[in-house]
Design a protein that fits this description.
Blueprint lengths: L1 H13 L8 E3 L2 E3 L5 E4 L3 E3 L2 E3 L4 E4 L5 E4 L4 E9 L4 E3 L3 E11 L1 E3 L4 E4 L7 E3 L3 E3 L8 E7 L3 E5 L11 E7 L3 E9 L32 E7 L5 E7 L12 E4 L12 E3 L2 E7 L3 E6 L9 E9 L2 E8 L2 E12 L5 E13 L3 E8 L1 H5 L4 E10 L4 E3 L3 E4 L11 E4 L6 E6 L5 E7 L5 E8 L1 E5 L6 E9 L4 E9 L3
Parallel strand pairs: 1-4, 2-5, 3-6, 4-7, 6-8, 7-9, 8-10, 9-11, 10-12, 10-13, 11-14, 12-15
Antiparallel strand pairs: 15-18, 16-17, 17-20, 18-19, 19-24, 20-23, 21-24, 22-23, 25-26, 26-29, 27-28, 27-30, 30-31, 30-32, 33-34, 34-37, 35-36, 35-38, 38-39
Length: 476
């Protein structure tokens, strides 16, 4: 064995300066378990590369390539090449990836990390390059149910470090696959695969690219559950002129930003994420559009009251209302016509008679919306339910206030679109500075308020219940 290893070492040295392919394997390449080996040129694997617990270091001085007809499975990999390593075929790492120096360019391939430890990927000054507009350069990490911060160490082509961090707090998230790429200042090209994004307009349908960071992310998971805190980073130029960054998810439209976010000049952190797909960062208190703002179902005597609000609609034919008793079989029970195209807040109501369900002693009834476009494409809402065994207790109204912090305006939207509320805004001294009536929702101009914290008290005029919120006004 010593003799064989010596010969391999000799071959490596001889091919440093004049070999395009340092190693070409067309058979079965077996490395001794625990061996540490350095490559100074390219690897082309057309056969079987046996993973024996080896450490493979890419130590070249010119760009090295991993290619071949077979996907290579490494154990430990060290990237120590300031000019970089490029994948020309997908690769798998069973244990650890150490990014000592230089870029690891995914080059429209998938790099899979099968070790779910938060320390499976470490770096000194190296980084991973995704940056393909078709989201074909993917880093796939089998996080499974291992909680903690998993850093996807992305960098730009020019070398700026922009990590994406997924901190799994609960659940089994499985494999998490992430890709990212920069855009022009108008945020084009939009993502087209695996999910089509059609705009970065604001809530009123106006171009919002000036308030949207010049980068998209595609995030997918294959586990059955998973709740995580996500941190998105951009370069200073990608966020130029944008403050108060907030992360938003595309789901056939830009969803309401999740609450509890924090940010820096070039990052946004959002907790309690359970759904993924495309993401972007908006700022300057100007949000991307929201299609389905809220959907609620509440038991009202012998009826289920379904209510939902949309902020924007594009080619919306309407909504099928579907009902299920077991979450497997769904039946259409009604249809509500959509507005086609709209940039205004629209409120919808549907009532389902529960007499037969109560008679049959059903326990829980489930509902969902099927939003249908004129071209026949459709999307489902999240599922809502009512418990028929529960008494008709008074259920608190849900309010959504955004953006917050805000500089120009704040939207206040309730899940009771037909209900009237009294809204009072107080300063820090407790003095009333604004009061008005809102029917379901309202947009409030706060551009003339001084930067400070304010208290908002919303009174339910039907039940005389009060709801208190804090508003942070930032400079215009």
């Amino acid at each position: 064995m010593k003799k064989i290893l010596f010969i391999l070492t000799y071959i490596f040295i001889c091919f440093i300066t004049n070999a395009q392919d340092q190693i070409t394997n067309s058979g079965n390449l077996q490395l001794h378990p625990g061996v540490s080996i350095s490559f100074y040129g390219n690897i082309s694997n057309n056969g079987t590369f046996n993973n024996g617990g080896q450490v493979v270091t890419f130590d070249g001085t010119i760009n090295q390539k991993i290619s071949g007809t077979s996907i290579t499975t490494f154990y430990d990999v060290v990237i120590n090449n300031s000019t970089g390593v490029t994948l020309q075929q997908s690769a798998i790492i069973s244990n650890t990836l150490t990014l000592t120096s230089g870029p690891l360019d995914l080059n429209s391939n998938i790099l899979t990390i099968n070790n779910n430890s938060t320390s499976a990927i470490t770096r000194t000054s190296g980084y991973i390059v995704s940056e393909k507009t078709d989201n074909s350069s993917k880093l796939k990490w089998n996080i499974a149910n291992n909680t903690g911060s998993h850093t996807f160490p992305f960098g730009t082509v020019s070398g700026t470090y922009i990590p994406f961090v997924l901190n799994l707090t609960s659940g089994t998230i499985g494999n998490v696959t992430v890709s990212t790429y920069p855009t022009a200042v108008n945020n084009t090209p939009y993502p087209t695969t695996p999910v089509l994004v059609t705009n970065v307009n604001d809530i009123y349908g106006n171009d919002n690219s000036a308030n949207t960071a010049d980068r998209f992310w595609q995030i997918d998971k294959d586990g059955p559950s998973g709740t995580a805190t996500l941190t998105f980073n951009v370069t200073a130029s990608e966020a130029s002129g944008i403050s108060n960054l907030m992360a938003q998810r595309w789901n056939s439209g830009w969803e309401t930003p999740l609450a509890g976010q924090s940010n820096t000049a070039t990052s946004a952190t959002v907790p309690n994420v359970t759904s993924f797909s495309p993401w972007a960062l908006s700022g300057n208190s100007s949000l991307l559009p929201i299609e389905l703002l809220c959907f609620s179902v509440k038991k009202n005597n012998d009826y289920a009251d379904l209510k939902w609000i949309t902020a924007t609609e594009t080619n919306n034919y309407g909504f099928d209302i579907e009902k299920s008793l077991d979450l497997n079989t769904w039946n259409k029970i009604g249809f509500i016509e959509g507005a086609g195209n709209s940039n205004n807040l629209l409120q919808y109501v549907f009532n389902d008679l529960l007499t037969q369900n109560i008679k049959n002693s059903n326990t829980v009834v489930y509902y969902r919306l099927k939003q249908i476009d004129f071209n026949g494409s459709f999307e489902y809402s999240e599922t809502r339910s009512v418990n028929l065994n529960s008494s008709n207790i008074e259920i608190p109204v849900i309010f959504n206030l955004f953006p917050n912090p805000a500089s120009q305006y704040i939207n206040i939207i309730s899940d009771q679109p037909l209900q009237q509320f009294q809204v009072n805004i107080f300063n820090q001294n407790g003095s009333l500075i604004r009061n008005f009536i809102m029917n379901g929702s309202i947009k409030v101009d706060i551009s003339d308020l001084k930067p400070a914290s304010y208290h908002i008290i919303i009174t339910d005029k039907v039940n005389e219940k009060q709801y208190q919120y804090k508003l942070v006004k930032i400079p215009n």
